[in-house]
Structure prediction request, 245 residues.
Amino acid sequence: MAELKCPVCMRYMRPPIPMCQNGHNICNTCRQEVNLCPSCRQEFVESRCWILENIVQKIQYRCQYYTKGCEVSAAGHDIAFHEAHCLHRPFRCPFADGTTMCRWRDELSVMWDHIQHKHSSQCVTAAQGKCTFTLNCSGPRPPRIALSAWGEIFFVVSRVMNFDLYFCVLYVGPRTKGSIYSYTVTVSRRGRCARKSATVCHVTKSYFTDVQNIFRNPDCAVFPYGIWNRCADSHMKLSCEVDIR
Prediction:
């Protein structure tokens, strides 16, 4: 197996496997970053190393996160897909792209502990999938909220664009499970009866999805200005009830 490691990144090579004029190999990812072979400084050829690729397809690779506890082994064309969705892979904190710029990266199983410790003012635990919190819409980017529901982590992102309120719930976990949940969000006047309220239902998205594209499409819950503004108080704050199923 050591012979199958890329000389640059030291990860196992998988098809397509490029080669240089002298027959040295390198992984396709690193090939995009270098112009000459790192072993002999010769140029690469257009051909691929088909013999090595055929051998690679017959080998059972163990997941690169085996040191974290993953016990999965699979062929080369399957292990890459598994690693992209492995629960033991390092996940970044969902707050990483916001104003907090959190640099935390670790297993999904300990993410909620991190959120509760570092982002306690922006997290809510949902009982039976339901929770209520206050949303401040006085600016274009209301504060984001992390939710714990059904043993999973979700992330609420909202925007005020062209005066309309865009509201999206992201599933934090493997990309393949991004749309298995749905959510219902109800906005209403804080501290008042719910006569002034509005409800929209939608399907969750993976937190790997580009949020800007979600809002641009739009592929999320949208409250027109005339509706959500009637539910807001004088400080542009709303009561939000989220029900995840």
Remarks:
- The mean pLDDT is 89.
